[in-house]
Write a structure and sequence with these properties.
By secondary structure, the chain is of the alpha/beta class. It has a domain at 25-226: P-loop containing nucleotide triphosphate hydrolases (Rossmann fold, 3-Layer(aba) Sandwich), CATH 3.40.50.300. The chain has helices at 16-22, 74-87, 101-114, 119-122, 135-139, 141-155, 176-189, 217-220, 235-241, 283-291; strands at 28-29, 40-46, 49-54, 58-59, 63-68, 92-96, 126-130, 159-163, 193-199, 223-231, 248-257, 261-262, 267-271, 277-282. Helix 2 (74-87) packs across helix 3 (101-114). The structure holds adenosine-5'-triphosphate (ATP) and magnesium ion. Magnesium ion (MG) binds at residues 74-75, 98, 163.
Amino acid sequence: MDGGWREIEKGAILTAGEAAERAPRIFGIPTGVEGLDDLFYITRIEDGRPVKVPLGGIPSRAVINITGVPDTGKSLIAEQFTVKQAALGYPVAFITVESPASFVTQGLMQRAAAMGINWEDIEDNIVLIDAASNTRLREDVDVLLDTLAYVIRNYDTKSVVIDSITGLFESREMLARNIVRRIFNFLKKWGQTGIFISQKRSNQEEESAEAAGGYAVAHIVDGTIVLHKRLITRPWEEEAFGVPIGDVLRTIRIDGMRLCGHDTRTHVMEITETGLVKVGPPLSEVIRRRRG
Ligand SMILES: Nc1ncnc2c1ncn2[C@@H]1O[C@H](COP(=O)(O)OP(=O)(O)OP(=O)(O)O)[C@@H](O)[C@H]1O
Ligand SMILES: [Mg+2]
């Protein structure tokens, strides 16, 4: 009776107890974005009661998708995260797919200056992989992952930022799930925390799951952060949000996170004059205060 039993993947079978022993302890990875780190928490039982304990960042080893239409602050967040982690002494691999490494570096330097962080202290902790200028890295996932493995091993990086993941399957969207899945699995295997930037084409379907990046990226990653901007055109909006007609209201929302609890509300978001993303109060609170 051994026919048909030869292909058992024993390595893939484990009891929940064995899996639990291997599970890494979850802690917060600071993002460098003011107001964002407080939105993640874990729940502990103390004296028989559940208590929310702030994580102080995104969950360690999570792979998070940040999505939004153009000019919503995705790249700024990617850069702030990179600068913050580098400043904490943790090397970061930054795969740039949209703009060449020299431009990204300028952005990183500006972000560091705005965050009050000395560039000389962090420059060696940021390892850029310039897929924007290299077609093979953009089009061949095997080459990209081999290159990334080399970087992780040689620079001992703890996190990987990809701006943008959507740039890796431009014009071949039926491969999107496969590419995202492979990179996701790779980051898990190497114990990296991941930030994927996803470009969203339109503001449509803001409330649906597809809003979280499209291409079903959201189903693969551990969590999604949705950035949104809304042009204020009506008096009632001006009244409710306190944003003048013709100005833009920016918001941010955590759309699911597998590894920890999180705030589910839509928050006001600001991009400061120095180009730093900051998370403000929940939109509901803003409206209530204005009515109050
Ligand atoms: N000092 C600044 N430096 C950079 N950006 C600033 C600054 N001040 C304000 N901003 C705003 O932040 C925006 C940058 O957003 P960002 O580059 O993060 O967009 P994105 O979501 O990555 O867009 P895309 O999908 O086009 O890459 C600018 O377009 C600008 O409106
Ligand atoms: Mg960008």
